[in-house]
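Hypothesis: this fold can be encoded by more than one sequence.
Test: take the structure tokens below, design a sequence, compare later.
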């Protein structure tokens, strides 16, 4: 029960009103640690209740200051990778702070700088921000980072993936007087995340919730082989028309692919929406609202645009393009099968996706179920031979033993965009970590 967590009465009242009765595991673990003043590094997915896990104890501490009549200042800063996530967090803050005098604000890219400066002049107690825009405000002097006591880096792994490492570092360094830093990530991340954690956190408590291995217990994971991108489109159209689902998310690796699919599906009379970083703020908001409310049942999205969104009722995820890393796969698939509900995750695999798919299988220590759609069996069913790793066995020819044989003609030099790195549509780099800065 939340009542046992020693939170301020005014917060408890708001929680009760919002039917928050039982804390989720991440809240149960993180709230006492944060209330005790410890730095925290937590690995927890969207959907685990991580937002309340950091907001409630921070709001509690802000209230204690308010009650001690401290002078107004922006003392809590939540740094997030995307605008949508910022918006969602602001909504949570407003819900929880309803019975308090705490003020909150948000500064994100794509909205008026001047209006944001005016908001900052009102000295909100808690600020939610995306790195690029916040740094501009710090540099312009409209945000006084030196006042920040609580710094929360939410989805830190994603911020790094999106190329915000430098901005993050600059912001962290500007928060010279912070007393507590909380770092949340959906995955354990790589070297960059470890380095940030080491340099920023002081003697942190480390909480590991919903690790990768717990993923997909209620989500069936399938692959369907495809001979070409057009074949993938036919497979997707079949799935959207015939599969039993409430809401589906279709992921592509690039904006161009997302737009192309959107056009094709719309032309085929499918009610779909598309969400990516080139959409303006209003379009993104509308797309999300209509999808959340069930107006459109299918959302096509790039990873960056979809990151951190908490949309209820998504029970089918289709990877039109295979994600570029195991962690990205986890993020995508983590949207289905929430709270023990059944989910379905389907990846469409051409010969260019195969090796990536098999490394993701190995990473997850899971084997995807292979599926064929009626009447849509193509000519590609996976590599003829596979290595023990599951990857396609090489097709390199052995060197000829006949010394007199003519040397094989050298293949023409490939252009810069090597086919090993670029998918058939010429857009999607298949490298493990491509910079994915999309704002
Ligand atoms: P998050 O992982 O923070 O994005 O939260 C996922 C969703 O669960 C949000 O809609 C929260 O409002 C909701 N939520 C978080 N904690 C609780 C709780 N203890 N009880 C009920 N709903 C919750």
């Amino acid at each position: 029960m939340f009542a046992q967590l020693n939170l301020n009465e005014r917060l408890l009242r708001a929680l009760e009103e919002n039917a928050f009765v039982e804390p989720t595991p991440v809240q149960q673990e993180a709230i006492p640690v944060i209330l005790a003043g410890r730095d925290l590094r937590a690995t927890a997915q969207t959907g685990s209740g991580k937002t309340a896990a950091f907001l409630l104890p921070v709001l509690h501490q802000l209230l204690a200051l308010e009650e001690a009549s401290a002078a107004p200042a922006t003392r809590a800063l939540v740094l997030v990778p995307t605008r949508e996530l910022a918006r969602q967090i602001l909504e949570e803050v407003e819900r929880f702070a309803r019975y308090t005098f705490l003020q909150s604000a948000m500064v994100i890219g794509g909205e008026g700088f001047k209006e944001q400066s005016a908001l900052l002049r009102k000295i909100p107690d808690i600020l939610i921000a995306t790195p690029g825009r916040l740094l501009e405000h710090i540099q312009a002097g409209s945000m006084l980072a030196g006042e920040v006591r609580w710094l929360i880096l939410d989805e830190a792994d994603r911020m790094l993936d999106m190329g915000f490492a430098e901005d993050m570092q600059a912001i962290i360094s500007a928060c010279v007087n912070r007393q507590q830093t909380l770092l949340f990530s959906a995955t354990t991340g790589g070297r960059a995340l470890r380095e940030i954690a080491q340099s920023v956190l002081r003697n942190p408590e480390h909480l590991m919730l919903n690790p990768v291995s717990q993923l997909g217990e209620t989500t069936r994971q399938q692959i369907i082989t495809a001979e070409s991108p057009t074949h993938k489109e036919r497979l997707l159209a079949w799935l959207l028309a015939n599969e039993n689902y409430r809401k589906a998310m279709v992921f592509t690796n690039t904006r161009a692919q997302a737009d192309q699919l959107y056009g094709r599906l719309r032309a085929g009379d499918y009610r779909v929406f598309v969400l990516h970083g080139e959409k303006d703020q209003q379009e993104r908001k509308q797309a999300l609202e209509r999808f959340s409310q069930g107006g459109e049942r299918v959302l096509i999205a790039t990873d960056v645009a979809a990151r951190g969104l908490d949309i209820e009722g998504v029970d089918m995820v289709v990877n039109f393009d295979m994600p570029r890393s195991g962690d990205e796969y986890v993020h995508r698939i983590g949207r289905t099968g929430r709270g023990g509900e059944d989910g379905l995750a389907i990846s469409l695999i051409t010969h260019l996706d195969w090796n990536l798919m098999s490394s993701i299988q190995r990473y997850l220590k899971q084997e995807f179920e292979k599926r064929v759609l009626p009447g849509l069996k193509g000519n590609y069913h996976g590599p003829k031979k596979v290595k023990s790793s599951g990857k396609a066995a090489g097709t390199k020819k052995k060197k000829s033993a006949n010394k007199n044989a003519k040397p094989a003609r050298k293949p023409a030099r490939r252009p810069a965009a090597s086919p090993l790195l670029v998918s058939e549509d010429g857009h999607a780099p298949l490298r493990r970590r491509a910079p994915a800065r999309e704002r």
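Residues 125 and 436 are 32 Å apart (CA to CA). The radius of gyration is 24 Å.
Hypothesis status: open.
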